[in-house]
Amino acid sequence: MFRNRQEAGRALAPLLKKYEKNSNAIVIGLPRGGVVTAFEIAEALSLPLDVVCPRKVGAPFNPELALGAVTHTGEGYFNEDIIAQLGVTQRFLQDAIERERKSAETRQNIYRKNRPPLVIRDKIVILVDDGLATGATMKAAIGWVRAEKAARIVVAIPVSPPDTLEEVRSLADEVVCLVAPPFFSAVGQFYEDFSQTSDEEVMECLKEKPQSTRATIGFAGDVMIGRLVNEMLQKAPPEYIWGNMLPILRSTDLNVINLEAALTRSEHIVPKVFNFKSDPEHARSLLAARIDVANLANNHVLDFRAEGLAETLETLDRAKILHTGAGKDLEQARAPVIIEKNGIRIGIIGSTDNEPDWKAGPGTPGINYVAVGDLPGLKDDISRLRKDVDILILTMHWGPNMVPRPSEAFQAFAHALIDAGVDIIHGHSAHLFQGIERYKKGLILYDTGDFVDDYYVDPHMRNDESFFFIVEVSKEGICSLRLVPTHITECQVQTAQGALKEKIIQRMKNLSRELGCDLEKIPCSFD
């Protein structure tokens, strides 16, 4: 038995911990008591809270008997068996639905006090009530959220009869319920205090909170969408390559990748062992995963000469995907990206120690080439950018392939870059993830491995395994790190599961410990 609705919400929150501080998740309460329960969940998980007000549609001459329920948009759930048994006319039903729809709309406006509703599309929506009986209002709420094209629907309730619970499970993507007793008469029997919640209490719960003072930045390693991946995207939807990582990619405030292929139709190939390009229209795949910034300082962006680079830049600009590390001349290649998220100014510089012959010049297109150890090659750019941003990121394509650990020279250079003003080093190039180091106030992701590709998999080195690295930041610096283990299969990234997941996590812990960083002693979590 729950002492009250608040206690029920606090009991539910730990079961939803995987959504904590997820910028793509929201909590929606069903009034009135459900909003009180939802408030506790939203507070515990640091998620925004909103309201939906499904209204029960009562039967003729017996309004307590629910024919179904309807939301403010007209989306609803109706028990066709009861409607048929009672011989309810379409005229009565339509009038009752419209009456309750208007009432739902009025209630929402009162509770929100004209505050705009939260965006539902592509979000993880956690629907909360203080308990279910027939579940009519919850079923109507699920229908509304589904119609608004949410990415995932999670239902969280303290108590429900088993049959209603199974019906709700068939409609939602996930259901969390604390108690489903076989003998059930009313929700109130499971509370010591089930007194009626007032409108004022609901409005107090929904008071607008101050804007978040933190932001989450997602880092992925090499995203190679050429060759077989390009062929796959010609017949698969743009979202295909992201697999079940898509909701996680969409949950961050900012995503940064190394784009390991030109976006071009050029046939002017540069003679070399591997040349990667993808059809320009496949920028849609980057947009599907909310990729905000692409590093172009690498050894493939000029695989199809200057015209391939020019088309890549034009394609990304047209898609409004920011880029750094390559350009029409040296000034553009060195130019940082500056972007603001939740009031935090973030600056990103891209560079590479690959392909020195591709170095951009004053009037020559190319990459921002900086050799490892060449601090003067970056120090001025870092100093200038440092004055304008709260968080400074260096995304570097550095080092040879298939190397599991950074050399002492790389570590020394990384330390010098942090000392020069960099907050986060986002490394890539090895095709393997390397250890993580916390140096002073900085975070060094020495190599973030491969994220999407069609590469041959070394059975020992396992270049198909890595992580999605989520860094939470504030104006003051780095707050926490979250690692999502991944693996690549059939040109698609997926979350690693079971024994594979544990193996990948343990390898990262071991590699980081070699660098003097115990991931269990810093704010770091694994999904």
Describe this structure in words.
The protein has 527 residues and is of the alpha/beta class. It has 2 domains: 5-205, 3-Layer(aba) Sandwich (Rossmann fold), CATH 3.40.50.2020; 214-526, Metallo-dependent phosphatases (Purple Acid Phosphatase, chain A, domain 2, 4-Layer Sandwich). The strands form 6 sheets. Strands 9, 10, 13, 14, 23, 24, 25, 26 and 27 form a 9-stranded mixed beta sheet that branches. The chain has a 6-stranded mixed beta sheet with strand order 16-17-19-20-22-21. Helix 2 links the parallel strand 1 (25-29) and strand 2 (49-51). The longest helix is centred in the first third of the chain and has 23 residues, at 90-112. The chain is elongated, with a radius of gyration of 26 Å. The model has no long low-confidence stretch (mean pLDDT 95).
The total domain count is 2
Number of DSSP helical runs: 15
Question: What is the molecular shape?
Answer: elongated
Beta-strand residue percentage? 25-35%
Structural class: alpha/beta
Please identify, by name, the CATH architecture of the largest domain: 4-Layer Sandwich
- What's the total number of strands? 27
Mean pLDDT: 95
Q: Tell me the name of the CATH class of the largest domain.
A: Alpha Beta
Tell me the Rg in angstroms: 26 Å
Largest beta-sheet characterization: 9 strands, mixed
Helix content: 25-40%
Assembly type of the shown chains?
Answer: single chain
Distance between the termini: 32 Å
Low-confidence sequence ranges: none
CATH topology of the largest domain: Purple Acid Phosphatase, chain A, domain 2
CATH superfamily of the largest domain: Metallo-dependent phosphatases
